[in-house]
Amino acid sequence: MTIPRLPATTTPDLVLAALEEHGLAVIERFLDGDDVRRKKADIERVLAAVPTGRNSFEGFTTRRVYALFAKTRAFDAQAVDPLLLAVVERMLGPGFLLSAPTAISIGPHGSLLGYVDGRHPAKFLEDTRAVEGGVVAGAHPDG
């Protein structure tokens, strides 16, 4: 499967078309390299302060941060980004609320397999080098 790669100057219509056709999209250079490094460092700081999972669902070696906005200000700009908000509004409708962002660090022997709709498995991208400075939206049932 070819992952659609869109420029940072893309439009909500183009992002939505890619999501509809492919189930995911990369917006290249949505974040600059320095911003990516700052965000990664802050996420690592926050993740270091939380315990690993309590059961096999959470992953005994995986760390999860819930209520991310309460623990770091590093992602505030993305929470109000016009492109992101326009895409989400078109997908969810007006009046949506971004209220439960999370950060997950999958530990050794953890699984990158998730489910798009509760039935169809989807592999989620872990290699940040492949999307550095970009944003991956969606997940595709074909992995």
Question: Helices and strands in order, then pairings?
Answer:
Blueprint: E1 5-6, H1 12-22, E2 24-27, H2 33-48, E3 63-65, H3 76-79, H4 82-92, E4 103-105, E5 113-115, E6 121-123, H5 128-131, E7 135-138
Parallel strand pairs: 1-2
Antiparallel strand pairs: 2-7, 3-4, 5-6
Description of the molecule:
- The chain has 143 residues and is of the alpha+beta class.
- The protein contains five helices and seven strands, in the order βαβαβααβββαβ.
- The protein has helices at 12-22, 33-48, 76-79, 82-92, 128-131, and strands spanning 5-6, 24-27, 63-65, 103-105, 113-115, 121-123, 135-138.
- The strands form three sheets. It has a three-stranded mixed sheet, covered by helices on one side. The chain has a two-stranded antiparallel sheet with strand order 3-4. A two-stranded antiparallel ribbon has the order 5-6.
- Helix 1 (12-22) crosses helix 4.
- The relative contact order is 0.21.
- Mean pLDDT is 79; it is low at 115-143.
